[in-house]
Amino acid sequence: MVGAVLAPFTFGLSFFLLGMYAMRTGFQNLAGKKMADWLARFTRTPMHSFWVGLLSTFVLQSSSAVTVLTIGLTHAGMINFAQTVGIILGTNVGTTVTTELIALRLETFAVPMLLAGVALWLMPNRLTRCTGLVVAGFGLIFLGIDTMQVMAKPLQQSETFRSLFLESRHSIWLGLLTGTVFTGLIHSSSATTAITMGLMSHQVLSMETALAIVLGANIGTCFTAVIASIGTNAASRQVAWCHTLFNVAGALLFLPFLTQLAAISAALTDSPSMQIAHSQTIFNVVCSVAALPFAHQIAAVIRWIVPDRRKT
Description:
Helices cover about 80% and strands about 0% of the residues. By secondary structure, it is mostly helical. The termini are far apart. The relative contact order is 0.13. The chain has 18 helices and no strands. Helix 3 crosses helix 5. The mean pLDDT is about 75. Keywords: Cell membrane, Membrane, Transmembrane, Transmembrane helix.
């Protein structure tokens, strides 16, 4: 059991960090004035940044991928932290498509992206080589996430984790913790949501507890961003912690209203699985839209929590 969990985690984390290094190197070499101006133009306001984050996540079907990309861009100095708050809010809305279309697996593109990146890196043109590093880096990141998800099967078969999911029906706080821990371990909020949907289909959990697990999954998915920020500059760490603290705050604010959220979702559909998907969509849309007008204030708070020591 230990080996079945530890080996995928070790290899997956190694792939992930190597991919981050390759992607950062590629972006740093591509960080010319024209590209910086282009990015600044499309993220010059929180609303523009919001749509960039939403559409990027909609296309990639992974908020983690977009957050990792944002951290890479920030570390390369192509955008500043204030411009990323809107992107983070947008990713939370865009990621709801993943829940609605839970069968879609972005990780299937990992090997093709890695091979394409290596092929581009072997080209003589400098711009093409740097682009290849970015593409290969993303391929390694997805390969790392996919490798770490191998842990899901032995964990699902573990009596400890099965008991944890079953005990969650007695407490929404335990449900929140279950979703957070499980997602943090397997790096997939979609997998946690799928397990929750399966338990709901057998009427193991109440809808309120199932929704608490899904809210916890929103927190657990931030673990990927925190890993991605290791060894980066202050602005990149601010991106990771902004994503994390925003999801934590949103989950805690919504927790007392899970009964009302469940009632609204039940009015939209009779399917328990779709109710979970719709509830996550409502949660993310409400939190992000409500926070968007205060993007500058949120950025100021995060800078205070995660200061740049070099400027003090």
